[in-house]
Amino acid sequence: MIEQITRFLSVSKNQILVLAILSCLLxxxxxxxxxxxxxxxxxxxxxxxxxxxKGIGNIWSKDSFRGFFxxxxxxxxxxxxxxxxxxxxxxxxxxxxxxxxxxxxxLFAVICYSLLVLTFYFFLRxxxxxxxxxxxxxxxxxxALIFAVHPLHTECVANVxxxxxxxxxxxxxLSAILFLKSIKSGKLLFSLLSGLSLMLxxxxxxxxxxxxxxIPLAAWMVRKQRISTLVFPSIVxxxxxxxxxxxxxxxxxxxxxxxxxxxxxxNPFLKWTGSQYIPYSVNEKLGxxxxxxLRDIGLLVLPHPLTHDYYPITxxxxxxxxxxxxxxxxxxxxxxxxxxxxxxxxxxxxWSIAAYLFPLLIVSNLFFPIGTFMGxxxxxxxxxxxxxxxxxxxxxxxxxKPVLVTGLVLVLLLFCGKTISRNFAWKNDRTLFxxxxxxxxxxxxxxxxxxxxxxxxxxxxxxxxxxxxxxDKILSLASKAKEFHPTYRDAYMISGDANSMKRDFENAIKQxxxxxxxxxxxxxxxxxxxxxxxxxxxQLGSEKNDxxxxxxxxxxxxxxxxxxxxxxxxxxxxxxxxxxxNEAIQYFNKAIEINPKNAQAYFNLFITYTNMKNQIEATKxxxxxxxxxxxxxxxxxxx
Length: 639
Fold this sequence. Notes:
It is built from 31 helices and two strands.
């Protein structure tokens, strides 16, 4: 049986077929998924993408988040900005040609991933063909196979937004293939196409810049090309990369890191002192980064458990004296030392180490902040090096082949099973957050995200008892988030929203006021506070007959929104109950000034004038109310 499978797989066409089919089958269960997580930013809520071809000009000329935030300045919330137009451009074309159904986008993601796996395979065939013809085909196949099935890739395929990683790596590997062809053929066209392909990778995601070094390194280290032959095609790569930087800088500005952020969700290397956040010490930051790098290795070897969320405080600060930090440092020094030592004798393994480390160092927080401690998507490009290293090790073993093959098949099957099962978590935001909160139990971000999903349910809940139960669960999640991140604005916002839904307006007001004490310019908090003031005033008047405080909160609502006609109506009603009829008339007229078609305001004037025994004005007001709304008397319980 093993011999038959080996014979079948020894044919190049069969290898290609297996890789293509397997890549698609592994992610076939994502085709009916909804848009999830950051898909809203780049697809469903991105106005430029949703415009199809008409939005392409804005996609290429603005920050990639501009289409989501929909107004200038909001996109700058992410340090350094984001300029990744290539995938947004592709999404806009999908909208134009095939519509907005999530099925189409998930199908597109699966196809692109399958093409990436094949590109990886062909890259290795091109790289290894002339140096190890006896094993190059199997090395290429095993490397691509390990890459294809690795569960860490679920975030970049099941989540359509992850196509920025797929595109960045795919264009980088294509660039490498063209680079090798340019060296072999000496043709300028291949050099230019190689540079263009790398630039498209950079337009997909900036970490493709790692291949500016990795591509020439592969040709020199593995293919043993003379440095003189690499100079011109390398200069071409550099010029196209520089062109990307010029375009990016002209659109986003020239501060790629955006300076230090004091918000924990954008800078995890902050610690709470009890009253404020202060930066990690150099010792703590370096130790934590090294610890995360060790976790990265662990996830590649044993991808369990998986989560999309490594935000604060899922990982606590480590110093460089921590045993695991020391282990990480030793391992990485050993990897670098081994790569340098074996450059000539084992160039494939040396390059695979470089292919692992170069992209990872870019997103490691060593040189500039990335906004979180680590992430499975950040290992996507680095897994190329891991896959090659494992495949190389397997092909070097001569003895115990039956045992080796059996073990390899078992591991690959386990990886396949983990990939397929992990895909289910990416069905929608609810399944993702409810699953990953178990593995990111100390993440402030995921607690708020899950609370946000539950809040959407709360809006649709009619039963009062059920509503209170759900609201209390949301408040519990928000409370946890505040525990992990005491100044987390979103946690206080969602607490305010949940309290408002359960009609606990007093506590809702406190939450919104706290948000505004942290961020006075946060418009959603101002808007929600205004509504809470109004509803609390209404509640105090109608349920507790506390007209004095009711008026106080209604006036606060008007201070925040002078055009809130409902608050004027309520103040008029309150004044009417207090028999302050002249004030009531003023409030009702103010509501009419704001909205001349407010039939209820005219009807309230009718009641007020009737109470004042001013029949002429009462009749006029009633006639106007009926003119605007013939059913107004019935609505107010008058036959």
